[in-house]
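can u pls check wat happens w/ adenosine-5'-diphosphate
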Amino acid sequence: MIRMEPAPAELGFDLMEPLRRHWGYEEFRPLQESIIRSILAGSDVAAVMPTGGGKSLCYQLPAVVAGNTAVVISPLIALMHDQVAQLSLMGIPAAAVHSGVASNEQRDTMERARLGEYRLLYLSPERLARQHTVDWLKEVPVGLFAIDEAHCISEWGHEFRPEYRQLGRLRQEFPDIPIAAFTASATRMVRHDILRQLQLRSPQAYIRSFYRRNLRYYVRLCDTKTQRALLLRALAAHAGENVIIYAPTIAEVEDTVELLRQNGIAALPYHGQMEAALRKRNQEAWMSEEVPVMVGTIAFGLGINKASVRAVIHLSLPKSIEQYYQEAGRAGRDGEPAECILLWRKQDAVLLRFFIEKLEDKAEQDRSWRRYREIRAFAENEVCRHRQFCSHFGETPKWDQCGHCDICGWKPAWLEADRASLPLEPHTIEADAALLAYLREWRRAMASELAIAAFIVLPDASLADLARKKPRTREELRNVLGIGERKAEMYGASLLEALANYSSAAPPSFAPPQPAPPRERKRTPEAAFTVIGLLRDGLGAEEIARRKGLKPGTIYSWVEGLLEERKVSFPEGWVDPERRRQIEAAAAQTGLERLRPIKDALPEDFTYDEIRIVVAHLRGLQGVA
Ligand code: ADP
Ligand code: ZN
C-alpha cells in the first residue's frame, strides 16, 4: 500500500512547478505553502483561513505532488461536484462518492480508487460513517484525510452537523494517515473542539487573520421603507455586478425580487421551498452571470465558489456573528474591494427572539441567546466592525481604526451621491470593461459548449488578468492567472482567436466568439469533456451524435478511446446487460487484441459498435491490472 512517507520539509518538494503547471498560479497565498509542507511531512494540520483564503489548494496540491489519494470530507454535494469538475479540467484525476451518484458509477469509482487512480476523492460525512466505506478506504492508497468546513463537527459552531461527529473514528481506523482540518469560521472554543473530536496529534496549527482588508462594512438600523430605498440605491450603484441579497424569510425573498423587478432590476430568488430543479437553474443563471443579482435565504451561498461578488446586502439581522461573517464574507473573495451592507430592522430582532424562545433543547437555547446578544452588540456597538470580528475570533488587532467601516468613517459612495450621477464611474477603465464583457461572452459560449458552469471554465480573476495582459501567443497565455497547462491546451486556440478578433475589430456590439470547432471528427479535449458530461447524464450514442452534429459511429469510437483510457465508466444503457455478458464471454475465449474473432464468435446480430465498447472497457481494466 502506498503511504505518504514522512518527508522532512528540507527534503524540498518542488511546489512551484505543479502550482504553475496545473493551477496556473505564480505564487502561494499566505500560509498555503507552510500548510502544504506540513502535510507532506506527515503532520496533522488544523488550519483556520478566511473564505477566499485558498483552502482547497492546501489539500489538493500535496496529493498531486505525493502521487497518492487525498480523501476530502465535504458537507456539500454541490461543492464536491464543482471541485471534481475543476480538477478534471486541470487534468487532475478526481471523483466524488455520495448519494447523488448512480450505483454503477459508484462501484466503478470505488474500484478505480483502489487502484490509486485518483489524486482527490470527495466523500460526504455520512459515507464515512459506514463500515463498508472504511473497509474500502483501507484498500485505497490514502495519503491524507482533509476535513473541509471542520467547524461543522462542533456543537458550539453555528453549523453543527451531527454526521460530522462520525469523523472521530478516523483516527482509530487510520492511525497512520495524517488528518488536516480546514475551516473559515471558528471561535477559540470551536477550534478546541475540532482538535479534540478529530483527535489530532500535535497538530500544526495555522490561523490566518480574520481581518479582510478589502471588505467595507456598513451597518444601519432602519425601517422597511428606508431599507427598500437604500437597497435600490445600492443596486443602482452596483449595476451589472454580482450581488447577493439575504432576506430573512421566503416571503421576503419573493417580495424583494418583485420590488427589484418593478424597478427594472433583474434578480432571481433562491430558497429552501423552491423546487430543486428551479433552485439549481437559478443558481446556475447567477453563477454564469446571466442574472447578476441573487436574493436568497441563508440556504443560498453555502459552497458557492464565485470570487467576484461586489456586494452582499443583508435585509435582516443574522443569527450570529459567525453567520454574518461567513455570509458577508462571500463578497470580494478575489481580493478586490467589496461592500458588506447590513440594513437591519427592529422587527428582525423580535423575530429572532421569538424563534429562540420556542427552542426546546435548553442547551441549544442558551447558545442561541448568547449568539443573539453577540450579534446585537455587533450591530449596535460603536466599535470598528473589522475589529469586532477579529476579537470575536480570538484575535487582537494592533489597530483601533480600520478606515473602511462605517464606525471608522467610511460610507458607501451611493449613500451620499445624487442618484443621477451614480453610473458615471471613471471612464478610463471603460475599454477594459468592454473587453471583460467580451471575454465573459466567450466564456459563456465555452461553458454551454462544454455543458459546465461558467466559473468552472475560468474564474473571474482569470478573465480580469486576460483583459489586462491581452496574450497573443500560447506562451503569453500561460502567464495568465489560473491558466495552467491543461486549460491552455483546451482553450488556447479559441481564446487567442477571440482576443485577436477583439483587438482587430473592436466591434461596438460583437457576436459571441465560436468556441473550438465541435464538428471535427478528431477527439479534442473539449469534445471529450462534453461527451463525458453527456454520458454522465445518461444519454445514448444517437442523442450525443445528434447534439454534436456527428455520426453515431464517431461517438462510439470516441467512447471506445475514453473507456480504454479509463476516463469514463461503462455507459450502462448502451448495451443490453445480457448481450454485454455474451460479448465478455466471447472475448474471454478469443482475447482482446482484435474485434473480428469476437464478432465471429457471436450471433450475427451483434454489431461492431457494441462489441467495440464492451471490449474497450475490458482493455481499460486490463491496462491497469
Ligand atoms: P476557500 O475555500 O478558502 O474559500 P478557495 O480554495 O475556494 O478558497 O480559493 C478561493 C479563490 O482563490 C479561488 O478562486 C482560487 O482559485 C483562488 N486561489 C487559491 N489559491 C491561489 C493562489 N495561490 N494564487 C491565486 N489564486 C488562488
Ligand atoms: Zn473600522
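The chain has 28 helices and 13 strands.
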